[in-house]
Sequence to fold (511 residues):
Amino acid sequence: MNVIEAEDLVVRYGTATALDRVGLRVAAGELVALIGPNGAGKSSLVNTVLGIVRPESGRVAVHGRAALVPEGRQLFGDLTVDDNLALGAWRRRRDSKARDTGKVYEVLPGLVRLRKRRAGSLSGGEQQMVAFGRALMADPDVVVVDELSLGLAPLVTADLAAQLRTLNAERGMAVLLIEQNARLALDLCSRGYVLEAGRIRAEGTAAELTASAEVADAYLGAVL
Amino acid sequence: MSDFLQYLVAGLAVGCGFALLASGLVAVHRVTHVVNFAQGMFAVVAGLTAGSLLSAGLPHGAAELLAVLVAGAVGLLVGLIATGKPGTSAQSALIVTLGVGFVAYAVEIMIWGDNPRSHPGLRGSVQIADAYVQKQSFLVIGVTAVVFTLLGLFFTRTYLGKAFTACASNPYAARAVGIDVTRMGLIAFALGGMLGGAAGVLLTPLLPISYNSDVLLITSGFAAAILGGLTRPGLALVGALILGVAESMVAGYLDASYQTVVALLLMLAIMIWQASQRTSLTEEAAR
Fold:
């Protein structure tokens, strides 16, 4: 069963076409990478999948709950870490237990000591962890991670990638990882798409994409 | 000394009214980034409505409460007109609120005429030293203290209040977690309407109002609100109290016609000071 299904999505901002008949699917429990250069339309695709942007045409369906770890973290800087996490459960607000942040602190114990700190005062890595935690508060079937590595040190990125892998393995949570760092994305995910200028240029398993001379040349820096 | 005390308490009461108006401006601006120039109109509508309801025989308390709710409904309507269309910019919405304020003039004149009106508030006065201070002034100060405490608790302790702060802090992230930012903006307009309405029903017994009293009210409310950058209600309260006392002293010792000039000068001084702070910060960062 697919948790995300998008078909023939067209998104335009004025006269500029951000997405041109883009299709994508993510199966339950699957780790999928979406790679591409700046301005390829990756964030437009994310925003369309999550209903933040309405497509001009095409179809998008999310089966189950989806949560976003946005590009640049996008925390509520004036609120505490605990408040940021609690607001992640907004879609489930009628369930009073949903706001209990305890489960997230069990999964991400590094956040416990930060719980009363203002989110805006944290380091980039800490903020990314809060953004993860906030997404987990939605109890998602699929989490969309927009630029995991952006602005983070390689060690911090590797740690966060390991956390994602663990969450995927232990909770069966599907992941759609949008990344400029293609090597990281294809190492982490089992399948992937390459988006360029608003169009899907290639798709396949991570192994197939890694083996592709075109992808390796454009995104992996050198032929492997 | 007795005059001074009288002007001081009267100024604090009027300042509290400005603070309620300013907090309405802040509530709307924090969530929507719209400067709501119809905010003064909410006070006028509520003040005049309360007078009509009292004349119709409704008891005190019920009439004022109903008038505040009417102002809340008007606030919601203004919010719908100004921000209901998706993609409306904050600047366009500002102009719409200004236009709605002018349309409201016509409606208010049709219903209540163009003469200033007042309604009785809390009767009597209290003697402090040699000064006699109206009980209504203490009522305004007391209600404002309660409203600000409740607002503080709402924004810092409740889930909905934190969602409001989230919309102000990062609207994109708020949308991403599922908060309907447009709906929150409309709630903020309704809240702004009720806060403006509270100012109207409390101030009308002290200052008779007419359809165009919104100009004085919005000028003073805006001057107070910009002290807190239109985002911090606590600083808006401080600004409003300073302004209320300054206007009261000017009216008492000089001439009441200079009151608006005082508000405008204070607003200008604050804006120049804030601009100079920003410039010095930019220069510091450039070094």
